[in-house]
Amino acid sequence: MGPSGSGKSTAMNILGCLDVPTSGRYYFRGTDVGTLTRDQLALLRRYYIGFVFQGFNLLKRTTALENLELPLIYRGMAREERRALAREVLAQVGLADREDHTASELSGGQQQRVAIARALVTNPSVMFADEPTGNLDSARSHEIMKLLKSLNEEKGLTIVLVTHEEDIAKYANRKVRFVDGHVASDNAAVAA
Ligand SMILES: Nc1ncnc2c1ncn2[C@@H]1O[C@H](COP(=O)(O)OP(=O)(O)O)[C@@H](O)[C@H]1O
Ligand SMILES: [Mg+2]
Predict the structure, then answer these.
(1) Hey, which of 9, 122, 158, 185 would disulfide with 177, CB 3.0 to 4.6 Å?
(2) pLDDT, tens digit, for every residue of 79-122?
(3) Are 17 and 41 in contact (CB under 8 A)?
């Protein structure tokens, strides 16, 4: 959490290996990411990290199912296998009946569910979500947070989420507050 411009997205981009720090070191699974090439960073993201964004970032004229299949194509998964897996994960986020709808035919809440499913389909170690409820009304926001909470509790998925809304932050086990590019507080002890 933290005010606009406090460095939340910058921190998340470093944690998610989209960016590397100009000073200091960040180790992901024991590797100093500053020593990796761009291609190695891309591979690391592809195998270990899932991203969810405020603006959903789906392919608009592509079906929900095809949006989930895309990261699996990059992994070289065979067509039948990837279709079955995409179906299974779309059902997990409650959208089994929307498989063939294009993203633009879905509501905001449904699009964010598809985006979460797309992040999950590769079975990442950690999911990064930058203001995932920022474009949703409060009822839809709480639905998304309940879904994320259940993924954390039932699948053991680690989720790092940026928000500036206190009622969204309430779902978290650990809260880190940013001010002017620095960590101002971190209740890590409470999470243990
Ligand atoms: N620790 C930091 N060191 C250097 N620059 C930073 C740091 N944190 C944030 N910034 C800079 O501050 C600006 C806003 O940061 P950003 O991460 O977009 O904030 P937020 O997501 O909280 O609105 C960016 O230009 C970013 O490069
Ligand atoms: Mg931001």
Answers:
(1) 185
(2) 999 999 999 999 999 999 999 999 999 999 999 999 999 999 99
(3) yes
Decide: 133 and 161 in contact? Cβ < 8 Å.
no
Domains and CATH numbers, the chain: 8-191 (3.40.50.300)
Residues 135/54, Cβ–Cβ less than 8 Å: yes
Cα of 179 to ligand 1 centre, how many Å?
10
Is the full-model pTM beyond 0.85? Answer: yes
> Which residue's structure tokens are 């065979």?
78
The answer, yes or no, to whether any atom of ligand 1 lies below 6 A from the CB of 62, is: no
Does 8 sit in the ligand 1 pocket, CB within 6 Å? yes
Q: What is the CA radius of gyration of the chain?
A: 17
- Give CA–CA dist 174/170, Å, rounded: 9
Token pair for 123:
């079975």
pLDDT tens digit string along 35-75?
A: 999 999 999 999 999 999 999 999 999 999 999 999 999 88
Could you give the 3-state DSSP secondary structure of residue 157? coil
What residues have their beta carbon closer than 5 A to ion ligand 2? 9
Alpha-carbon span 16 to 161, nearest angstrom: 11
Question: Residue 2 — φ and ψ, nearest 5°?
Answer: 155, 160
